[in-house]
UniProtKB/TrEMBL annotation:
Organism: Lynx canadensis (Canada lynx)
Feature: compositional bias, Basic and acidic residues: 14-23
GO biological process, one term: exocytosis
Biased composition (Basic residues): 77-86
Record protein name field: Exocyst complex component 3-like protein 4
Family designation: Belongs to the SEC6 family.
Region (Disordered), start-end ranges: 1-133
Cited InterPro entries: EXOC3/Sec6 (IPR010326), EXOC3/Sec6_C (IPR042532)
Amino acid composition bias (Polar residues), ranges on this chain: 24-37
Keywords: Phosphoprotein
One cellular component (GO) term of this entry: exocyst
GO MF annotation list: SNARE binding
Amino acid sequence: MSLSPTVTSWPEPHSPEESDKLQTPEQDTQQASSGDVPSTHREDTRPGLGTLRRAFSRASRRALGQAPGEDTGLLRRSSHFLRSLRRPRDDGPAAHQGGPAPEGPPGVTDGGGRPSTTGVGPEEPGQEEEGKSVADLITERQLLAAFEQLRQLETRLLAQKASGTFEQDPTGFARRAMDVCLLYDGLAAEIRAIVRETLGPGGVDAAALAELARVVRAEEEAHPVPPADGDFLLTPRRWRRHWEDAVTRSAQERVRQAGAGDAAGAAEGASGLARLLAELGGSVRRDLRQVRLQVQPAYSAAGLPAWEAYLRAFHGAVAQRLQELARDARGCEQLYVLLDWTANVYGSPDFLGAPDLTLSTEPLPPLLAPSVWARLESDYTSFLETKITSCFDGILQLEQSRWVAAEAPDVLQGLYHTPLSIDIHMLVAEHVKAAGAISAELEATTLRICARALGLFLPRFEKAFLQSEAVSEPHLGASINACEELRTSLLARFPGTFEELEKPLVAAVCVFQKRLLQGLQYDVQPLFRVLCTKAWLTHDVLQPLMDKVVAFAHHLEHVAPLRAQETLQEAHRYVVREYLAQVLRPRERFRGVDRVTGSQKMGLDAQAIGNTFQGLGSEATWLGQAIPCVADILGETYKDDIGRHLETLIGSYPDIRRDHVLAILALRRLGRRRNQRLLQHAQSLLRAAAKAEGSGAAGGRVLFEEIQVPTSVDLLITCI
């Protein structure tokens, strides 16, 4: 029976990139003419053993001219046909000289099942006893034996071509060459199948892996370089690259399967994404440990770098998976989960759980491309800024709820305490620590975000607190303590970043101190009105005032020491200043004995005020001379010594002005000439004091400057 197919071109050898896509012309012809039902979907698109057997049987059917359903022994004849490819011809090249061209491949049976004798010699020694074809050996995964037989077929076919056997039958050589290529592809497909099953539930077949490694090395030795004459049969099959590609696909499949059940949960929130990444990390960890402990030793004898290949493959697969997750990440929490897993879980030296197993055996590219990493950080910081602002809103709401509930602040370690500073400290420390675990740049950015948010929070807190009904000495003291804690601790812990917040924090403390003093002033202001009256001369009207001062100072014991001392000194200055204001603006003017009695009374009051504040701990000793100096001028019987008292007063308080001197002299009602001399002397002292104040000698102490003295007829008379 003659054969009709005609081969018009030689097939190109399959590269690893094309081996999944290309088919030989013989296969294309078979598929186009076959009436078989299309096969079901397979994971690997490369021709498997079943594909090869079908191809071989179709070739046999073409040779016999049979329909697909007419022969029940196709696989048997295909196997016999493959074995016949290994038989040497009885006839030499001259056997067919002058005769008709061969009608079919050697060993193809005729319609009655008898072997055709055209160009067929006796069976190769050992083959009949063995009874196994190359396809059978591939099926049994005797890869090295299959390759050796296939190599013999290839060598014999090339020898026959070189001897001119196929000069009259070029299509016969083409068919045989196609069959050899199909067997090579079948062997490559089995290599891929073994790699795909290596990390599967069946466990590692060390013998199969060793066989695979040896056959890869054997093929490289058999086909070291492309032939000079371009013969495609001797072209290197590049099975090492096929093996590496199979490893890559296996890793991609394993990574894709990991966390498949949590893929929907990953879109719902950070917890679902965290579970997915945890499962992914556990799967990769188990697979790489298995590669290092079981797979690598099996390959090592043949010199295949299994660990490096699997490491690169899994690294690339994880990187691809993270790229997909990064595109779908939403919200601050999900973005942080991705960044944290990349930097601190996968990037950890002990990711594989053993000191001798690391991911750094060779330089690996970044898990996420720099542009992707930068985008994730940028998106994270944008969400973080909104989140931190929301957290500060929550802190303010908590404080307001405490104010509404009229809860008194706790006393912690002797100081009024509010959770405000702890809440802010925890907020800043938590986010800065989390960002620092990812990168120094993200930590610095987070610090700036926290500092900016805190700077916006302070005036809001200050305004809300002062407008609430909870303003009292304990709450004011607690707020002062909170701001002071933030100022000292944040600046110490994060130097350079929170320095710009020192001024707002100090300003807030000053506002709360001022409000604290306003409460004292409101309580004691009416008590100053009875000073310098007839009743004052005979009664102790100062004691109620000092009792309120002592009660006020009791709250300062629970305020930060530095701020408590500042507030106490300010209270001390206020009491002395208001006392002098009442003296310089008397409701009643004393003469004779009343003036002397008033002078003595002022001395006693000055001593009481000084002793009280000294007992409370005030360090404003510079205030002690003010009231006694005025009292001495008022009660001085030797008028020439009044000038000496003025010198002491102006020297101690350089902020005193001419109007204050006039008001003091008006209390004595001295003669015109004496007043003129004392006033001239005082003006020279004031000019000297002004020069000293300009040079900073005054030390910033202010007392008389804040005392307003109204112009009266008595003052005018004194000036005249």
